[in-house]
Model the fold of this input.
Amino acid sequence: MGLCRLFLQKHSQPKLFPGDIVEYPRNKYFSHFAVYYGEKDGVPYVAHLTCRDAKLLLFGRALRSEIKLDPLELLGKKYKVSNMLDDSFSARDFHGVVKPAIDDMMGREVTFDILFHNSEHQATLFRYGVKKSEQIEKVYKHIMPAWKKLFEKKKL
Done:
């Protein structure tokens, strides 16, 4: 039974509910985050902040980014539910608050900023009404020294 359970854990996908934050690991430092939107015509969709069609500018900013609705597995087959702030904040009502907020943001230009407005910020903003990025907090101590001189010389 143990081997069967291990196989299922490794090869099955988590159960998703509308409003869940979906994390797609990219490398050891960063993941891409989305909010599970539900199914349309039997296909599961996620809403996410993307800069894939925008030019990523110097210092991690991309103008003309946007919230997109894409099929769940278009962003990757490896994902997990990551409602990381459930212990600190209440999740907002999906149908009354989150879905209308996502629908309202569709088609609007948003500036993607790796430090101040990335996909994790956007996902937590939708789910909790709070803008937070735990992954940036972990790497910020490494980023800031590299940019300190540029800040001082007002080149950033």
About this structure: The longest strand covers residues 61-71. Residues 20-153 form a domain with the endopeptidase fold (from Nostoc punctiforme) fold (CATH 3.90.1720.10).
